Each structure stands twice: as structure tokens, then as C-alpha cells.
Amino acid sequence: MIPAGVIEDLKYRNSIEDVIGSYIPLKRAGSNLKACCPFHSEKTPSFTVYTGEDGHFFCYGCGAGGDVVSFIMRMENLDYVPALRFLADRCGMTLPEDDVKPGGVTRTRVLEMNLTAAKFFRSQLSQPTGEAGRAYLETRQLSGSIVKRFGLGYAPDSFSALRDHLRSAGFTEEEMTEGYLCQRSRKNEKSIYDCFRGRIMFPIIDVAGNVIAFGGRVLGDGQPKYLNSADTPAFKKSKNLFALNYAKNHASDGLILCEGYMDVIALHAAGFQNAVATLGTAITPEQARLMKKYTDKVVISYDSDEAGQRAADKALRLLDAAGVNARVLSIPGAKDPDEYIKRFGAESFSRVLSGSKAPFDYKIEKTLQKFDITKPEEKVRAVRSLCEAIAAIPSWIEQDIYAQRTAHTLEMDEKSIKMEIERILKRKAAAYKKERREQILRETSGSSDRINPDKMKERTSNSLEQMVLGMMLAFPEYIEKVCRKQLLTADDFYTGFNKKLFSTITECYQSGGFDAAMLSQFFSQDEVSKAAKYASDRRKLSDNGNAVFMDAVTKLHEEAVRIREKTAGGEDDLATLIERRRREQE
After folding, report:
1. Which structural domains are found in the chain, ordered by start?
2. What predicted TM-score, i.e. pTM, was given to this entire model?
3. Nearest-10 crossing angle of helices 68-76, 80-91
4. Residue 570: which pLDDT band, with cuts at 50, 70 and 90?
5. Is there a smaller number of Cβ atoms within 10 Å at the N or the C end of the chain?
């Protein structure tokens, strides 16, 4: 365990305002700072950064909270110790290595291994074993400079080539499997084999220049066509984008979002260096917010088939929620950018790009392609589809404009269109009210609390537990008071989560000191957020004096005694009842 004093110094050198401000724009709100939350999509800021001595953050929208260490863990997808190292590197501080005892495979080792693997794959293109890979790249008309720029390589059609190379470089089997470069045999668990075989390899590189993962394209008709790294200690596919390491430097005029690696590479080769792609999955909210970090404009360039259209619809929703102005590219005469550029050239693609469509124009175009509006029943379906889209738009002004557009396009009465939109809005409002009532009932019953499901069994005890823990976390002098005078023990806490939280705080304190960052070593980020809420709730109150704290401690201890007596009494009553029934049967 890293000493509390070291963590305190680390947090002092990495002020929460500076660290979070390097990821998202913060605006002053009184003595605090506010922003749109980087952990969920929102347009009205509910993410607050408290810049006092114990700098922390809390989002009143999604409930995420913690200190600068837990923020880095979330944003960089790091475990506790790697997050501390990240912050130490940021401020030029050296952590005491003797005290660092990370469990399992570290992010640093996975990154080192990935770089070794990338060099191995690259070298195979010049070997006899890489002939099939070279031939494929030639058919895709990729120049040597582009192959080098993206670090493309080839995974030999072998079960052991990479495994043996990594072994010779000093990497363990655990590191190979945790890094998703090898996997264990189902027939013989003691044996591991290469995950990527007979594939063109695309290194996934983050904005810091680290090789964090790989994508592999099969040669021929094998399945799956693309094989992508699973999540590892160094990589979370939902939070990264292919080629963002290059595109971020060319994002002033916006980004081009593609479906596949080859589309991105073709666009970069043609001079469109602002192209990126998701990593084998549909776009995620995290990826939408990641793009927002670099630009306010994104052109979606997905395949023209039905699957591509569905993916474009989802991308439009998520990008809009992230505050990005998204448009959709329709590519005439080709199924994707790579094919179009090969047929018609980069200059022609540039003209197509400038004609990308606004979301509702795209919706109208696709609706008219889907439905034959010369048939009454098809026209009704088209109207309903467009009215549903309009009803989802929050701006009344935009709703009015698009209602007019729909009426004109479908040769309908504008009043009828607006009446249908109003009907849809009323239906949605009723559904929302019903869901909200059900949510309140779940919260009141405690059934929605995954972190502390015991809280509704003994409400008084839970309320006092939260009060005591909140004051201990917000005002560390109370931790010292509890430990020095032995005011409470873990047995005084009824709920499982609160009992564990109290034990962790006091054990850390007695072992050399406690800092809130230490919670991230023992709890999930959702649990850390729950603890942060306890502290945040107490900080908002005006009276957190000693008398209030001691009163809560006394009442909590009395509650613990009452619960133990009730439980013991219940056991005696049950035993008596069993004995009585046994005698009656005799």
C-alpha cells in the first residue's frame, strides 16, 4: 500500500482543477466549477468540481464521484496503482516502488508487449511467411509509406509464432492471455496459442502513441472477417477510436467517422487525415464524447446497406447527445469511401463530402427510399416515421420547421402533421411519468440500490451510518476521533457496504494514515461514487460540528444494540415455537 502521505503529496501536485480541466472545459460557478459530465451524455451541466483542500468531483446526473485519482481511473481506464503512476508521471514525481504491490498484469507490461508484437507483425511482411499479407496489401493499392505510417503487419498462419517470440522477449503466459495476444487451449489448459493467425494486422494506437490493441483482417473468406482485441488492462474498445492519434491534429474542420480500418486508411492516403473509426463495435457514448473533445463537427460515412443505415441512426443520436453537430454522407456509386476514392478520385470525394446531409434531411431521404408513398398504407407509415423523428427533437423551432418540410415533401396538410407530432409527444410524456413513478417506488423500497441493497431493511441504522461515514470522509478529523477513542466498531454497522467502508477507512488509518484515494484500491468506481455522495451530502449542510457527529455516533451504537437484541429475540422465539410444535406432535 502506498502511504497516505505520498498520495496526499501526489494529489497536491495534481490539482483536481488542472487535471479535469485538461479533459473537459470547466466553467466557474461560485466557488466551484461545473461542466457537462464526461461519463454520461448531457447538455445541461451537472458535473461539479469542488476545488477546496480535499478537491473532489460529483455528477448529480449519473452519480459518478470521487477525487483526482478515481477520475483518472475512469477517464484512462486504469487500475488504482497505474492511475497513481499516471499522475506521478504527469507531475514528475517518483512513487516508492517498494510500497507498490499491484495485483495481476499491469497496463505498462501490456503496452510493452503490444509494442513488441507490433514490431513482430511488421517484420513478417518482409519474410517468406508474409507473402500472402504483402499480396493482399498490394491488391488494396496501399503504398509502402501508408503501410509504414499505420504500422500495418501480418500475423503468420501459425498457432505459436507470436507466442514463441513473446516468450523469448521475456513475457509470461499470463501477460499474453491478459493482453489478448494468446489464449488457452480448451483441450489442454496448460497450453496457449496465438489469437491472430493469417491476418493483416492493424495496430490500435492511442493519442499518446502507445500501441494499446490490435485489429486483424482475415485473408480470403474466413470468419470472422475482422478479429479485434478484447478489453485488456491497457485497452477498452468503447473508449478509443482507430487513427485518432493522427486525426486529432486535423480535427479543426471536423472528423469523418467511418466503419472500418480500411476506409480510414484509404481516406488518410487520399489526404483526408481527419478520418477515424470505431473498433469493431457500434459507436458508444464514450466515443461520442471523445470526439467532442476535439471537434464540434462530425460527418458520418458508413456503408450504404441497411446495417450501415441503422449504425448511422445510432451515431446521430449519440453525437447529438454529446453536443456534436453531425451530418451523414451519402456515397453515390460505391458502398464505402475506399471504393469511391478508387473509382472517382479524392477530388470527387471532397465534393461529395461537402454535400453531406443534416440529420433530418438524411431521415427524409431514407424514409422515401424505404416506403412507396404512392400507396396509402405506405404513406401512413412514412408520415409516422418522420413524425416520431420530429417529436424526438427538443427544440420547438426545429420541430416547426421540420413539420413544414414533412408536409411539403409528402404533400400533406401541415396541421395534420403537427397534430400527429402532438399525439406522439403526449404518449411519450405519459410513458415518462409512469416510468418516473416506478423509479421513485424502486428507490423508496431500496430495490434499485445495487451498491447497498441492505439499506431499506433497517432504515434508521442506514441513515445514521451514512451520516457518520459522510462526516468522516468530508472531515478527516472525525476519523482520528473514532479510531483514537474507539467510538465505533464494524459491528455497529448493519448494512454490508457501509460496514466494509467503515472497516477500510479505519484499518487504513491505523496502518499509517487514510486518504480518500485509497478507496479506489478496495472498491469499484460505482462504490467509490457512493462514498463520494455520502461526503458530498454532508458538505452541503451547514452544521457538521462535533456535537452533531457525537450524537450520530451515540444513536448508531444504540441502533446496533437494538438490532442485535431484536435478532437474538427472534431466534429465541423461533426456537420456542419449534419446541412447542414438537411437543404437540408427541
Report:
1. 4-99 (3.90.580.10), 107-235 (3.90.980.10), 244-356 (3.40.1360.10), 364-444 (no CATH), 459-572 (1.10.860.10)
2. 0.71
3. 100
4. low
5. C
